[in-house]
């Protein structure tokens, strides 16, 4: 039987947050569902899910968007992992990253949460930080704007021009991580962009 992967896009629920920097993880998971012609359905774990495949006959993937706020994402993620029988090393968390410049993607497994409360809560709920992460760079605010306000703002006009490409690249990174492994995905997506 094909292995199952859980791909979780972190974000905040509701229209107020849909287009904000903090929700880029959910935007990436939306792209992965759209590529497969799928729509999200309510799940009893306080999340919306799509059950699909990487490619037909290949690994099963469960795309998920928690209905909870970012800082309490762990409960739905742990619930989904338990429901689908997925170990932490097959739980891919896609999230925004302040410490990476906008238009940059980094992948890693394990390590600290870097002050990201959603990642912190997922690590706590899974009882391990050792899960793969696709970190989508949103950069830090210029000047004195508070980072907490920055992540809850919509992308700026200049960013919005490149946003579809960034989301597309991050979705590619998720697919490559699952299909070819972390190292292959890192080698492709950590290289400077042409």
TrEMBL record:
<comment type="function">
    <text>Hydrolyzes ribosome-free peptidyl-tRNAs (with 1 or more amino acids incorporated), which drop off the ribosome during protein synthesis, or as a result of ribosome stalling.</text>
</comment>
<comment type="subunit">
    <text>Monomer.</text>
</comment>
<keyword id="KW-0378">Hydrolase</keyword>
<dbReference type="InterPro" id="IPR018171">
    <property type="entry name" value="Pept_tRNA_hydro_CS"/>
</dbReference>
<feature type="site" description="Discriminates between blocked and unblocked aminoacyl-tRNA">
    <location>
        <position position="12"/>
    </location>
</feature>
<comment type="function">
    <text>Catalyzes the release of premature peptidyl moieties from peptidyl-tRNA molecules trapped in stalled 50S ribosomal subunits, and thus maintains levels of free tRNAs and 50S ribosomes.</text>
</comment>
<keyword id="KW-0820">tRNA-binding</keyword>
<feature type="binding site">
    <location>
        <position position="71"/>
    </location>
    <ligand>
        <name>tRNA</name>
    </ligand>
</feature>
<keyword id="KW-0694">RNA-binding</keyword>
<dbReference type="InterPro" id="IPR001328">
    <property type="entry name" value="Pept_tRNA_hydro"/>
</dbReference>
<dbReference type="InterPro" id="IPR036416">
    <property type="entry name" value="Pept_tRNA_hydro_sf"/>
</dbReference>
<keyword id="KW-0963">Cytoplasm</keyword>
<protein>
    <recommendedName>
        <fullName>Peptidyl-tRNA hydrolase</fullName>
        <ecNumber>3.1.1.29</ecNumber>
    </recommendedName>
</protein>
<feature type="active site" description="Proton acceptor">
    <location>
        <position position="22"/>
    </location>
</feature>
<dbReference type="Pfam" id="PF01195">
    <property type="entry name" value="Pept_tRNA_hydro"/>
</dbReference>
<feature type="binding site">
    <location>
        <position position="117"/>
    </location>
    <ligand>
        <name>tRNA</name>
    </ligand>
</feature>
<feature type="binding site">
    <location>
        <position position="17"/>
    </location>
    <ligand>
        <name>tRNA</name>
    </ligand>
</feature>
<dbReference type="GO" id="GO:0016787">
    <property type="term" value="F:hydrolase activity"/>
</dbReference>
<feature type="binding site">
    <location>
        <position position="69"/>
    </location>
    <ligand>
        <name>tRNA</name>
    </ligand>
</feature>
<feature type="site" description="Stabilizes the basic form of H active site to accept a proton">
    <location>
        <position position="96"/>
    </location>
</feature>
<comment type="similarity">
    <text>Belongs to the PTH family.</text>
</comment>
